[in-house]
Amino acid sequence: MSRIMCLATAMGIVSVVNLSSMQETTLIHPGGGGSPHVLTEWTIAGANISIEYGRPYLKGRTVGRDIVPYGEVWRVGADEATTLTSDKALVFGSLTLPAGAHTLWILPTADKWQLIVNKETGQFGTDYRASEDLGRLDMKVEQLSTPADQHTISIDPQPGGGILRIEFGAAKATVPFTVQK
């Protein structure tokens, strides 16, 4: 009987560990132009991370031409600027994001996307000021086999951190990070 209890307890602990890196998404509001606004939250490597953003649909438009124009800074969503918040510092390559809130922006081209992390928060998504940039990072861009009709930001947990993933249209852009101890 005690072996069964130990196994059940061990299975419960495994479940808690698995649940700790799961994504939870909450609808904030439907969005004025039809782009729902969501808050997505994760607990990864001991850090509580959230991203708040608008999720536009393609609606027959093409990324790089009609939406997310190449060569122009984009808000990584719809309406308000996309906000990433973490209670621990996150390290993206040589860029360390201190704990707190930051806005995310993208500078896309046909063959490369650059993630821009900005110190200013609370602004509308057309109010980007480069003078407030914390830093920029190249993202790995791949083509999706099935295009994403709705813009999606997610984090794939990895040991000690994760991979920030942005999908829209035929593009998937990723950048790894670690949680600073």
Quick tags:
181 residues; mainly beta; ten-stranded antiparallel sheet; two-stranded parallel sheet; 1 helix; 12 strands; 10% helix; globular; disordered N terminus
Describe this structure in words.
The structure is a single chain. The protein is 10% helix and 54% strand. With 181 residues, the chain is mostly beta strands. The chain has one domain (23-179).
Shape: globular
Topology order in helix (H) and strand (E) letters: HEEEEEEEEEEEE
Mean pLDDT: 88
Low-confidence region ranges: 1-20
Query: What would you call the structural class?
Result: mainly beta
In short:
The protein is mainly beta. The protein is 10% helix and 54% strand.
Topology:
Elements: H1 2-19, E1 24-29, E2 37-44, E3 47-54, E4 63-64, E5 67-69, E6 82-86, E7 90-92, E8 95-97, E9 100-108, E10 113-118, E11 133-158, E12 161-179
Parallel strand pairs: 4-5
Antiparallel strand pairs: 1-2, 2-3, 3-6, 6-9, 7-8, 7-12, 9-10, 10-11, 11-12
